[in-house]
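Example (one chain per record):
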Amino acid sequence: MNPFPIIIASAIGLFASAVTASANIILNGSFETPPVPTGNFTNFPVGSASLTDWSVFGPPGTAVSIVSGAFSQNGVSFPAEDGNQWLDLTGDNSNSTEGVSQTAATTVGDQYQLSYWIGNTTGGGIFGTTSTVNVSLNGTPTFSDTNSNVSPTTLSWEQFIHTFVATGTSTTLGFQNGDPAGDNSNGLDNVALIDLGPTPPPSIPEPASLGLLAMGIGLLAFARRKHYWNLSSHTLGHWSRAC
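Predicted structure:
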């Protein structure tokens, strides 16, 4: 067996893994810091500087919470989608329009892929039936996604992916609670922002398509010419009979 192809494949795999691992522009996208007590949660009020790499916004007196994946309440378990922790946008009974934001360096004209996971549970009596996250770019509401998975005993995660083109050298992404006041759980985890490079130019027809287009134009020209010949012959014949 020739080991060379295996070595090449392994090298490519390692390179791809390294690129993927370093591609996420968002910092602390899985809310692993600061660490919270196992099986518990920690609140971060609006204006707090303690939530690593994120700013907390919303009405005064509200908060978001980092929750341990080992936390459980009212017969519901709350595992993280990635790592050991996740963010609850409803905070501890805040249940308002609070959220978190982060400013990322971007390149004007580049296309970016934004992905994140929303957690929802329909159990426990106090956790509502759906989880909605409203996303803004530079303060402008841009995306709104809802996880409506029926999951009475476990926090269920669903991924949402969007693309946008950067218009500035930095982009501020905001993730805001969109649940009603009676909903005490709205999970956010594994936020990632990937630079896909310059916006693709308008597509150019492939050579085969160009050939078909040229053939079509040729046939159209031939048909028009044939119609002209037939019309000319009919006119000449009519003139000869008249003479």
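Caption: The chain has two domains: 24-198, 207-237.
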